[in-house]
Amino acid sequence: xxxxxxxxxxxxxxxxxxxxxxxxLYRQHRDSGMLPTSNRFLFYELIGLKVIAKGGIQRPxxxxxxxxxxxxxxxxxxxxxxxxxxxxxxxxxxxxxxxEDRLHYLPSARRDPWEGNPPFILTKSRSLAGVLRxxx
Length: 136
Known about the structure:
There is one protein chain. It is built from five helices and two strands; from the N terminus they run αβααβαα. By secondary structure, the protein is mostly helical. The chain has a domain at about 5-85. The protein has a two-stranded parallel ribbon with strand order 1-2. Helix 1 packs across helix 3 and helix 2 (about 40-50) packs across helix 3.
């Protein structure tokens, strides 16, 4: 199954409707070059689309987090395409030599896209900062 033909197995349940809407939003973000995005942005988009309501007995974002985790665990949405600045993974691994360690980071090396003139961006929101950091 590709992302384009996603049909949720529980399409009549709330979680299924949220997963279906998330897949549609993910495709829109991907196609417009707006990745990575944040789970918080997706949450508010779902509210705007009236897929979910803000309020109720249970935290309204829980179903979004569960649905998004389901889609990521199924490999339909890559983990690195959704950022969450409220979570951090600490990696204390290393290598036997500095040269070996540098080779490990070689795939993430890149040229300066700003040609020596990087923009100055000040954000109040950690989730927005995470999304912008992904494109830097």
